[in-house]
Amino acid sequence: MLNLNAFFVGLIFGLGLIISGMTNPAKVLGFLDLAGAWDPSLAFVMGGAILIGSGSFALAKKRKRSFLGAAMKIPSTTRLDKRLVLGSLTFGVGWGIAGFCPGPAIVSAAAGEPKAWLFVVAMCVGMALYSLIELRHK
Q1: Residue 13 region, left (φ>0) first, then alpha (ψ -120 to 50), else beta?
Q2: For site-directed labelling of 85, which of 2, 27, 78, 92 has its Cα 20 to 30 A away?
Q3: Phi, psi (5° rounding) for residue 97?
Q4: What share of the chain has pLDDT > 70, as a percent?
Q5: Cα angle at 52 between 51 and 58, to 5 degrees?
Q6: Quick one: pLDDT at residue 58?
Q7: Contact 29, 96 (CB under 8 A)
């Protein structure tokens, strides 16, 4: 049952990304182009996501189990460190270069977009390299 619910939540999320324009790299790059032809429409998408996410996390912090019975796994770390800042900057630069972030890239790849496939493969390689580096430092 949990997998079926996860499928439908993912489907709704993917449809939301398509409807909002997040799967269109030109729209994303237009949003990031503050000095040029800035397209502020994705700010409303992000604002809506922040509102829903804030309420959802506030509710989740009060619960031990999800509505479907799974254990809640909420990060407890609130510290900003060098690794988090550098990782965030790397993520942002990659997003700005490609016009994709992970969720929309996966949706676009599933729709058959070749540039999204390239992004997803590069993202997976990056995650694998990170894992290898982390294993060596432990």
Answers
A1: alpha
A2: 27
A3: -75, -45
A4: 99
A5: 90
A6: 92
A7: yes
What is the residue extent of each domain of the chain? Answer: 2-136
Which residue shows structure tokens 């398509």? 18
Q: Which residues of 93-130 are buried (b: 16+ CB within 10 A; e: fewer)?
A: ebbeebbbbeebbbbbbeeebeebeebbeebeeeeeee
Output the six-digit token pair for 17.
Answer: 């990304």
| pTM, full prediction | 0.73
Task: Specify the amino acid at residue 69.
Answer: G
pLDDT at 3: 83
Residue with tokens 């290898």: 132
* N-term to C-term CA, the chain: 37
What the block records as the tokens of 60 is 């989740």
61, 74 in Cβ contact below 8 A? yes
What stretches of the chain adopt beta strand conformation (E)?
none
